């Protein structure tokens, strides 16, 4: 018997429908249920051949549980190791490399210093940063949003440098991206499941939450066909490169060109009350089939994770990659140099006390907030009326 588990939080429609759907298919020796955890012991396998993860982005305990489960043979969807490493700025960089258009984007240091850092932690940051060059590249109006985030939290529309300083001042320790605003004629959200099944959903982000999927595509005729084919291709390219089995990709379409806005959603909204009945039916059915397929392929005790081409090529397909030496078999006694006895370390140069940092390094005296607040020449006057902030909730 192979078990498929779903790990979820507050969701009330998708997980229940998913479990019911898998079980209704009557597959021999396959059952689905909500994951149940009563203890987590290192290197001890779970009962699950497959786990669909819908919540570990918010629960670090679950993320660690899933890594342990994956090591012991569970096919965890999405790969918890890759998910932990991934973020939106990297996604944009990779998109450029694989030929998927994305808005021009730069990364900003956080407004507040990360906890336990001081001025000397930032000696590698130029002061001031090349703000003018960044503004010229991105342009205004722009979007500013966390480089690792979701759920429309801390997403801002910014109109000019002063507006940017003001809003950046609200973002605490978040690392933000400043991004070209795409003025779009069409907008789409696309599910991608198992790196092969794609559902393209017209989406209107300016509608109230419950009406966002009640949108219709503006493009028509051959232009629409071409657009949908391009989107389909881009969705697959992104998910094959990133290695997600369950994800959504958002596109803003400008002058007929789909530009990828947000494609790091490994626990995408799948609630019937937001995506609507038809999309819900598709996502439940497709996810159920994908999970069954993965359960059948899962080999107990082996690594059953999906890795994208970015990691796979870096690890196996790259002649320049560092070759990892073989790990010696446990019984072999390594013929290594004599182990160092604690307390008898070879004499090394004495460590430099933190208070005596070398003088050569130029230490910026201002906190990051002051860096971000550096006045820029020729700042256009602030608009009289405060610009509307993008809605915070999905
Ligand atoms: N560069 C952009 N141009 C136009 N609209 C954007 C841009 N970036 C974000 N948005 C709008 O803000 C919304 C939330 O941003 P998004 O990147 O999707 O963040 P989240 O991961 O929090 O959903 C998008 O659905 C879109 O409507
Ligand atoms: Mg989004």
TrEMBL record:
PROSITE patterns: ATP_GRASP. Keywords: ATP-binding, Ligase, Nucleotide-binding. GO terms for molecular function: ATP binding; metal ion binding; ribosomal S6-glutamic acid ligase activity. GO terms for cellular component: cytoplasm. Residues 329-339, 354-364 have a biased composition (Low complexity). Residues 92-288 form the ATP-grasp domain. InterPro entries: ATP-grasp. Residues 316-394 are annotated as: Disordered. The keyword ATP-binding applies. One of its GO terms (biological process) is SOS response. The keyword Heme does not apply. It comes from the Bacteria. This is Glutathione synthase/RimK-type ligase-like ATP-grasp enzyme. The lineage of its organism: Bacteria, Pseudomonadati, Bacteroidota, Cytophagia, Cytophagales.
